[in-house]
Specification:
Elements (H helix, E strand, L loop, with lengths): L3 H33 L15 H21 L7 H17 L5 E7 L2 E10 L4 E11 L9 H18 L6 E8 L13 H11 L3 E9 L28 E5 L4 H14 L4 E5 L12 H6 L4 E5 L21 H20 L1
Parallel strand pairs: 3-4, 3-5, 5-8, 6-7
Antiparallel strand pairs: 1-2, 2-4, 6-8
Helix pairs in contact: 2-4, 2-8, 4-8, 6-8
């Protein structure tokens, strides 16, 4: 039997919980309408057939994902030979696309690792840099087809698509090592090592795009979830690509999603929220924020949609290649616009 004192303690506990809930609700009501309002209109309805160029992109993405996540497989410092094989493959693909790739070597837990990057020099604004990056390591226990062979393959494909296009600003196409735990937000996280070096050299980064888990889409109702309280503002069907930024990078986010929506017949959603909102800083964009650079994440929302997230079943056959190729083609327009601003 609960005595009076116990009831008083329970009442105080519930009152405290209720206060916190009401406070969160108030904050959400204040900032989320602003954080979720994006320029342009997300595409809805049917989509045109893939163009011949998009079909070529789709086949190249299929090949890259298959090689990284099936032929090579799990790749991290515990599978260091596979990690090295992935780096060699990426390097070779940059060379085939006409670049002279470089590696940023460093040691993590006694293992030599590397970020691989290719630089496309700009013209009239060559001193300004747009970074297009994605991590090529996979989490322990997963072959990482969607997380993040999909992002790595997208970086490679964008490098191919833009290789011969004159652009005002310089582009760094980068594949980062060591994004996954236990390196995430640690000093040996690849993107943090790279961003710190840019900052040390005084490089002016006008935009950074983190391509993170971008290959899975679903038309099924209730296939999409969100961290509280974002679910009140977004669709329940996981058929869109997400543009995610912190509040400081809202301007970049608006530029990027506006261009995507104007050029690409594919559903898109955006949010610019404080980094404390769960999921907002879950990738390499975080490293660039720490160095004061504007950055955003492009994502299919990963664990909020993808059933195979961080599992042994994250395999190439789970990728939605037609939608994935549409997204990558659209990102080509986004990067072109950002590089010519």
């Amino acid at each position: 039997m609960i005595n009076l004192k116990s009831w008083q303690n329970i009442s105080r506990f519930l009152d405290g919980k209720l206060f916190v809930f009401l406070l969160i609700a108030l904050v959400a009501a204040m900032f989320l309408p602003i954080a979720t309002k994006m320029p342009g209109i997300s595409h809805s309805g049917s989509q045109p057939a893939l163009s011949s160029a998009e079909k070529i992109t789709m086949e190249r993405l299929k090949r890259d994902v298959a090689i990284l996540a099936f032929e090579i497989g799990e790749r991290n410092i515990w599978y260091k030979d596979e990690l090295k094989a992935a780096a060699q493959y990426i390097n070779g693909e940059f060379i085939k696309a006409g670049y002279s790739p470089q590696s940023q070597h460093y040691t993590a837990r006694g293992v030599e690792v590397e970020n691989i990057y290719a630089i496309k020099p700009g013209n009239s604004k060559a001193d300004e840099v747009v970074v297009v990056g994605g991590h090529y390591d996979s989490v322990l226990g997963s072959p990482g087809a969607n997380d993040n062979a999909s992002g790595t393959a997208a970086v490679l494909e964008l490098a191919r698509l833009l290789a011969d296009k004159p652009l005002a600003k310089t582009i760094h196409f980068v594949t980062f090592v060591n994004e996954e735990p236990p390196f995430f937000k640690k000093s040996d996280m690849g993107s943090l090592v790279y961003a710190k070096e840019l900052n040390k050299r005084g490089v002016k980064v006008s935009a950074m795009l983190s391509l993170e888990t971008i290959g899975y889409y679903s038309q099924k109702p209730s296939s999409q979830r969100f961290p509280f309280p974002l679910g009140f503002f977004y669709p329940e069907t996981g058929n869109f690509i997400g543009f995610v930024a912190n509040t400081s990078s809202k301007g970049l986010l608006e530029q990027a999603i506006s261009t995507f929506r104007a050029t690409t017949p594919f559903p898109s959603e955006g949010v610019a929220a404080p980094a404390w909102v769960m999921g907002i800083d879950w990738s390499d964009q975080w490293a660039f924020w720490k160095q004061g650079y504007p950055a955003l994440m492009i994502t299919d929302t990963a664990p909020y949609r993808y059933p195979q997230y961080h599992s042994a079943t994250d395999l190439p056959d789970k990728i939605s290649y037609e939608s994935y190729s549409r997204v990558v083609t659209g990102l080509g327009s986004v990067v072109t616009d950002l590089a010519n601003r």
